[in-house]
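User: Hello, can you help with two protein structures?

Assistant: Certainly.
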Amino acid sequence: MACKKSRSHALWGWAKEELYRAKSHTLEQMEDRIRKVITNVAHDFLQKTVDSIPGRVRKLVDAAGAYVEF
């Protein structure tokens, strides 16, 4: 069965890619890059990610403690 990539995984994948696009030489530079990346997440992408939460929670409740793959 093919596993569809969840929005949260896609978000973190995108953020990681953006974060490492430019090399940080100090911890301060890395922290600045993290802030910039988070600030630049597209609003519609965040909205779709938040909108997917109720469906994911429903799957967890329906599974009654069983393993759930998103």
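That covers the first. Now for the second protein you mentioned:
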Amino acid sequence: MPFNRKEWQQNNKEKIKECNKEYREKNKERIQEWREEHKEQRKEYDKEYREENKEKIKERKKEYYKENKERIQEQKKEYLKTDQSKKSHRISTWKQLGLISEDYDKLYELYINTNECDNCGIELVEGRYGSNKRCMDHNHRTGLFRNILCHNCNSIRPDYESD
């Protein structure tokens, strides 16, 4: 009977996995150098692979999710509590509402660190409700940022007001 490579690999998965792990640990620097030298080639290969194997990748992702659903949901729940998640959600909301900025990170820092309404001076609070909740005011025609206001001042200011 001829040697069947796939069958052998199937029967020796754990051994192969262990050998690969040992090799990677022994050759960390060498592997890293190779990756740096072949960055563009790898990028091109990965792109081609993804295009040629869309369905296969989709199926793997589905299978992985099914097998790890609880862990993934727990990780997501934990991530949603982080400052990075809150920042990402806030910036995404601004973009959906039409706010345009060259540096959203800088704008977010200004937003977080502004404690008083730029119009009336009332102390601002974080949250969804209240007349003194923090609002990002922007020109609805141009999308450009104007001020950080309380909800009352933001509601009163006309959208069409020129800057």
